[in-house]
Amino acid sequence: MLPPPVELRVPDAAFLHEEHFPGAPCVPGSCLLEAVRRAAVEAFGCPVSHMAQARFRHFVPPASLCRLIWKQPPPLAGHAAGTDDRPAARPAVRRVGWQLVGLAPEAEGGAAGRRLAEGEVWLASAGGETICD
Fold this sequence. Notes:
Layout: E1 6-9, H1 14-17, H2 29-44, E2 48-56, E3 65-71, E4 93-102, E5 115-124
Antiparallel strand pairs: 1-3, 2-5, 3-4, 4-5
């Protein structure tokens, strides 16, 4: 079972976006990915082994209010459901999809209902012997 969605408020810290991009500021993708990573660790209680398939659909303006939604990703091509393509010697992993959706209306500089970004986090247990649930 997946945890409930999380609301994220992107900070309006000028140092984050003053040159990204001049005249039309937006939050750097690396900052969005870090917010997703931190939320995944908190929601699942497992370390993130890596992130994959990240796609940024729309710019995220500073001070945006967003909802982070966890999703079950489709099985990897050519693999049975619930398995991955990593060698058995590596820690067990669980793939979890995520989607960042805008909540603030356009009049407030937001993108209400718009899918802003999406991707996958791969969670690993600390010891590597079990997959985190």
